[in-house]
Amino acid sequence: MVPFASIIIPVYNAEKYLRRCLDSVAAQTCPDFECILVDDGSSDGSSLICDEYAANDRRFRVIHQPNAGASAARNAGLDAALAPWLLFVDADDAIAPCTLELIRQIQQENPRGLVFFAAVFEPDGLLQHPDPTALRRFSVSEIGLFCENAPFPTPWGKLLNRALVEQAGLRFDPSLRCYEDRPFMNEYLRHFSAQVPNGELLYITRPLYYYESGNETSLSKSTKNQLEPAHYQMFDRFLQDCLHVYHAPPQQLRLPVMEYLNTVLYGLYCTPPAQRRKSAALFYKSPEYARLMAFFKENRLFESRYVPLRLRWTALAVTLDQNRLTERRWFYWKFHWLCMHTVYLRWKALLQ
User: Fold this and answer.
1) Neighbours of 332 (CB within 10 A)
2) Which is deepest, 136, 162, 295, 351, by most CB within 10 Å?
């Protein structure tokens, strides 16, 4: 019998957290699932733990493969999945016991909806009993407002339709070292909006997912996220889709645009100084840069880091970006107020 959902878990050297993750899956109040563990060449005890759970619970099965990265592991899980619905979980995280029960109920009651659910950073904060009333509805055109509430680009925190994934030929890009989940979700939403006219984005506001923020080996903790053209191309693609495919009001897109700006500047910071000038010059010559600068100007979206970026003062833009998060944030705010009085209040005069 085909289960309701395939839960896909890429595993790489997650021995410290893996049992907690797998126990949370095994404890689901809705037992109608298969759990695909993709051991991506782990060198610790993760492989043995995966084999142990598969031997003791027929709902678990393991794929062992040489290390190829999280994207390749997720793709292997997609290829092996049998259920009509897909759920991604990271090996250092955990899900609430009622996760599958609640998202199944929401999906069945709202067949034209795309189900997302909240995350929490403390395991004790997970929802223990289903609460179908904790639901917010967004139209696709409200994608900007939706992104302010729900975890959009991550593979976890959502229920995905396997038929749509296969029809669209969606796969994670193994060539990307970071942000590899964003193109996948960007394209998923684009195809969802085309195949399900007037479809809804459904956000379960009670936390069903625990995100482990203390794992220092996580890719999200990496300082090697050097800026690559693929990074600003994927953010630009999403921004253009928001504007021209989903017809989202520009004033609702501040968060996606700020994430775009943060990614560019953090990528430049992570790029070695010897290569930074070349990477920045490539970005400044790109159509993505021109569209980003135009969005700020046309929509009067003020952010102090925009000014040096528009003037192509890379070093100052990167310094501001880093200082805003440290004890030197005073430097960022001084520049912010200077720009507020010299740029924002006289925008047309200075930036024509």
Assistant:
1) 18
2) 295
Hey, what's the torsion of the CAs at 70, 76, 80, 84, to 10 degrees? 50
Contact in structure between 163 and 86 (CB atoms under 8 Å): no
CA 268 to CA 272: how far, in whole Å? 8
DSSP 92: T
**In 188-244, beta strands by DSSP E:** 200-210
**How far is C-alpha 158 from the geometric centre of its chain's CA atoms?**
11
How far is 183 from 85, CA to CA, in rounded Å?
Answer: 20
How distant is the alpha carbon of residue 337 from its chain centre? 32
- pLDDT tens across 283-333, in order? 999 999 999 999 998 998 888 899 899 999 999 999 999 988 787 788 888
Paired with 136 in beta bridges are 203
Half-sphere exposure of 237 (CA within 13 A, CB side): 15
Tokens at 116, concatenated:
């997302």
Pairing of strands 33-40, 160-161: unpaired
Asked if CATH classification 3.10.170.10 holds for the domain at 5-219, the reply, yes or no, is no
Angstrom CA distances, 201 to 94, 116, 240, stand at: 23, 7, 19
Between the ranges 178-187, 239-248, 340-349, where is the mean pLDDT highest?
239-248
